[in-house]
Structure formats: structure tokens, C-alpha cells
Design goal:
The chain is 29% helix and 27% strand. The protein contains 11 helices and 20 strands. Strands 6-5-14-15-16-13-18-17 form an 8-stranded mixed beta sheet. Strands 8-2-1-12-20-19 form a 6-stranded mixed beta sheet. It has a 3-stranded antiparallel beta sheet with strand order 3-7-4. β5 and β6 form a beta hairpin.
Length: 377
């Protein structure tokens, strides 16, 4: 594709910044538009598995990710009541070499600070909330809430489950509340009072689960996310509501004492609704294309949403650099991605990933930078 094409990426998240970094390295002019006024260290933790870190290595930021977060030494699944180990992976040097990348936990705020290093200075335009798209021939005119307007030859929607770009590619339908919500808490590890926990443990209950893990290599900060069934959500869309430690503990009453010790250390707690969408394999139209949660949101039960966004970004950037016109690039991109993403969505929906003996190679060993591109049928 002509490298003079102007590319606008909507959303400075994991997928959007990864796409921008690769497209800039391919010689394209890229600008990223982010609705937030700035990056800040708020939010939650995120797991970046080896299929993510090996991609970000090509942007020169893998070492910075490992330094800002933690290279996990293990993942353990445990039974909610007996504490029995149901499955375990030790991320030693041999396993890292086998998978082709490290397994990292990191605070989302720290992640954004590192991702910004993967794009050229000045790439991100903050305080730009997309409010409209007007297609005019081969270009698109973007309008933002601050009054700015921009023309772009290609628009990449990396703007999440409530994507504005998606409204112009698919429809204006709202996401679906799935009948579950997640307690989230980040707290200093010193509140554990010397109680030792593994780097990452998932506690499997009958209808709920809890996943505490460290966020830094110093192991001085812990993130604990606990997902529970809640039939109706009374809050506003995706907005979180305040919760309490007592509510969190009550939700996991009867769970093994090891988890109780962790939850007793919790301080500030929020409760977040879980949303998804019905599968729709229309990811692009004309000069607009989607990636990540904008086109295939998935429930966070496999810790794979971020991974799929990064893989999307790598494949899409390769397609744009390979094919002569956007239509062919978009067809190759979707044909390459849909089958894999569909499998991950299915497993995330079932919430079975690593709940027992699991073949992980197909997921962790995948490399979006070298995987074959499908023909643009």
C-alpha cells in the first residue's frame, strides 16, 4: 500500500499503540487519537502472555515491560475449597524459550507508559474523543469532541467494546451485560503481613473465581480480581461502583483460607460489570477497520483480550504493508484472524482455560509477526 496513506488510530490502548508502532516502522504516517487527557496510573492489572511479549519485542519494549511489571515464575490453578493444585505452569528459562516469550503481569498504567515508547514522539493526540465519521470518497473526515477535525485515508478503531468506529462499520447496538461482575482491588503487598503467595493463582469456584497476582518484580503490589454472578446491573453502563472489603470477602466466603488471607489484605475495592457482544465477523468496511474489543470483545476469563488485540495489530499492520488496497488488506486480516479469535472467545465464554491439564502451545507459541497471512478472498 502507498506509504503516503494517512492512518488514524482511534484509541491509545494496547492494540492501537501496537498497530501504530508497527505501521510507523513500515513507513506509514500514523496518528493516534485518545479520548483521555493523559495517561495515568489508574485501573487494574493485566497479564501479557508470551504470544504478546514476543510481538512487543519487535517494537523494542519487551525489556521495559519486564522491568515495569513482573516476569511471573508460575501460574497455579487451585480448587476453591481444598486448595488442591488443579494445574500449574512454571515459567522457567526452558519454558520461556519453548513459548518464545516471557509471561508478564503489569499494572495497566505502567503498561501504557511503556507502550508509548514504542511509537514516535508526538504520535498520540490526547483529549480527542471521536464523535463522528464522514466518508468522502477515498478519505474519511473525523470529528472530535474538542472541535478538531482530521482527514485520514485509513481509520483503525482500537477504541474498545463501546467503539465509536464500530458504529460506522457494523451498527450502533449496545454491548450485552453477561450477568457477572468483577471485584477489583490493588494493594501493597506489605498488607499481607509476610504471608507468602505465588506470583499468580486462580482460585476456581463453582460459579465464581478469584485471581490474585503480583504487579511488579519487587512483589510489592498485588492485584486481586474476583468474578461473581450478579443477575442484574443497576449501575451506569460500564462504570464501576464502589465496593467494600467485607463485600468482597462475603462473595468468596467458604473459599480456602489462603485466599481469605489475601482478601483480608484488600483495602479499596471497586465492582465492574462484565459485558460482551454477539459474535460478528464484519471487522472492516471501505477505509474503516476494527481490532481488539472493538470487533470481538471477550469475557476476561482467559486473560486473553489484550493478547488478541496485540495479535490483531501485528497481523493488520502486516496486511496493510503487503497488499495494494485497503479492501484486500482488510479481507486478508479478517480471514487470518477470525478462526483463532473465535476459538479464544469460545474458551473465554466457557471459562475452562487451565482449569485442569491444558494444551497451551497453540496459544502461547503463536507468533503474529510470522504466522501466514490468509489470501484476501
Amino acid at each position: 500500500m502507498d506509504r503516503s496513506a494517512r492512518i488514524a488510530v482511534i484509541g491509545a490502548g494496547l492494540g492501537g499503540l501496537t498497530a501504530a508502532g508497527f505501521l510507523q516502522r513500515a513507513g506509514f504516517s500514523v496518528r493516534v487519537y485518545e479520548q483521555a487527557p493523559a495517561f495515568s496510573r489508574i485501573g487494574a492489572g493485566i497479564i501479557l502472555s508470551s504470544n504478546v511479549t514476543k510481538v512487543l519485542r519487535r517494537l523494542g519494549i519487551e525489556d521495559a515491560l519486564c522491568a515495569a511489571g513482573i516476569k511471573s515464575q508460575s501460574y497455579i490453578s487451585r480448587a476453591w475449597d481444598t486448595g488442591e493444585t488443579l494445574y500449574e505452569i512454571k515459567f522457567d528459562a526452558a519454558k520461556e524459550q519453548h513459548f518464545g516469550g516471557s509471561y508478564v503481569h503489569i499494572h495497566r498504567g505502567d503498561l501504557h507508559a511503556v507502550l508509548e515508547q514504542g511509537v514516535s514522539p508526538g504520535t498520540i493526540a490526547f483529549d480527542h474523543q471521536l464523535v463522528g465519521i464522514e466518508e468522502n470518497g477515498e478519505a474519511a473526515r473525523l470529528t472530535f469532541g474538542n472541535g478538531a477535525t482530521v482527514e485520514a485515508d485509513i481509520v483503525i478503531g482500537g477504541d474498545g467494546i463501546r467503539s465509536k468506529v464500530r458504529e460506522f462499520v457494523v451498527d450502533r447496538s449496545a454491548p450485552n451485560y453477561v450477568g457477572a461482575a468483577a471485584f477489583r482491588a490493588i494493594f501493597p503487598a506489605e498488607r499481607l503481613n509476610g504471608f507468602w503467595i505465588p506470583d499468580c493463582t486462580k482460585w476456581w469456584g463453582r460459579d465464581r473465581h478469584c485471581l490474585p497476582y503480583y504487579l511488579t518484580g519487587r512483589r510489592d503490589e498485588v492485584y486481586a480480581i474476583g468474578v461473581v454472578p450478579i443477575s442484574r446491573w443497576e449501575g451506569d453502563n460500564e462504570a464501576s461502583i464502589p465496593a467494600t472489603r467485607d463485600q468482597y470477602l462475603e462473595a468468596f466466603s467458604g473459599f480456602h483460607p489462603d485466599l481469605q488471607r489475601v482478601l483480608e489484605a484488600v483495602d479499596t475495592v471497586t465492582l465492574w460489570p462484565v459485558y460482551d457482544r454477539e459474535r460478528n465477523d464484519c471487522w472492516g468496511r471501505d477505509n474503516l477497520v476494527l481490532l481488539g474489543d472493538a470487533c470481538h470483545p471477550m469475557r476476561p476469563f482467559m486473560a486473553a483480550g489484550g493478547a488478541m488485540a496485540v495479535e490483531d495489530a501485528a497481523i493488520l499492520s502486516r496486511c496493510l504493508a503487503t497488499f495494494d488496497v485497503p479492501a484486500a488488506a482488510f479481507r486478508s486480516y479478517t480471514a487470518t484472524r477470525i478462526s483463532r479469535v473465535g476459538e479464544v472467545q469460545k474458551i473465554s465464554l466457557a471459562n475452562t482455560w487451565m482449569g485442569g491439564p491444558t494444551d497451551t502451545d497453540w496459544f502461547y507459541c503463536y507468533d503474529a509477526c510470522t504466522a501466514p497471512l490468509a489470501a484476501p478472498h
